[in-house]
Design the sequence.
């Protein structure tokens, strides 16, 4: 787990950002309390240890678990909490974006563009002035690419990551305290962030949002965990 310092940031994307979607606004200030976020997406080994099974399509102990629904991810958090005594949960969408940006305001925490040397996405497509690259057509081991300034890996590409929030079409009346938005919206749909191994790089931007039904299981979907208190040593 990585300690994420609390602060206020601008959530959402400016109108000037290439490929911006209307659901990425309006931009608004959010004050996020300090919390802890997993350094990597949950791996298949970790999921197997807690859930007793590995549903993943691309098999490998150090690969991110996928083929997991939002319900599966929530159940994992609940079982991990029972095992460790720590209140593990999915991150809120605000926490996820805040942690991903790590103080940056550009489309990617790397800058204005991205390459397949920096993340696992569909390199047949480009973003901005970025070059074409490799399309690996599968997940890669967690931690294979450089982290952001706060030491978080795989925030772009590899697997879409479930957040706690219910899907809303925009940020009008969104919480400003960093908490998950769990009222209103499309109650059968949950937020996904970060893009995946199969995505065009525009879907990997820090402000990009997506959603799916809470029971959907695809080889594009994974998650990482958060906790508001420091986990005990060795958890």
Sequence:
């Amino acid at each position: 787990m990585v300690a994420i310092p609390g602060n206020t940031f601008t959530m959402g994307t400016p109108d000037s950002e290439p490929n911006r979607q209307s659901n990425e606004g309006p931009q608004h200030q959010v004050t996020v309390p300090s919390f802890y976020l997993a350094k990597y997406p949950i791996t298949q080994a970790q999921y197997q240890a807690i859930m007793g099974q590995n549903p993943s399509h691309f098999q490998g102990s150090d690969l991110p678990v996928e083929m997991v629904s939002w319900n599966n991810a929530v159940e994992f958090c609940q079982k991990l909490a029972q095992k460790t005594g720590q209140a593990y949960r999915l991150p809120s969408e605000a926490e996820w974006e805040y942690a991903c940006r790590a103080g940056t305001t550009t489309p990617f925490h790397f800058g204005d563009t991205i390459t397949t040397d920096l993340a696992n996405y569909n390199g047949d497509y480009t973003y901005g002035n970025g070059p074409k690259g490799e399309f690996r057509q599968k997940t890669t081991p967690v931690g294979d690419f450089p982290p952001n300034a706060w030491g978080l890996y795989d925030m772009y590409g590899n697997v879409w990551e479930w957040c706690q929030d219910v899907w809303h079409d925009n940020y009008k009346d969104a919480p400003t305290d960093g908490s998950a938005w769990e009222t209103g919206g499309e109650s059968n749909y949950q937020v996904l962030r970060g893009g995946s191994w199969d995505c065009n790089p525009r879907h990997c931007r820090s402000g990009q949002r997506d959603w799916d039904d809470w029971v959907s299981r695809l080889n594009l979907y994974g998650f990482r965990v958060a906790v508001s208190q420091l986990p005990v040593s060795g958890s």
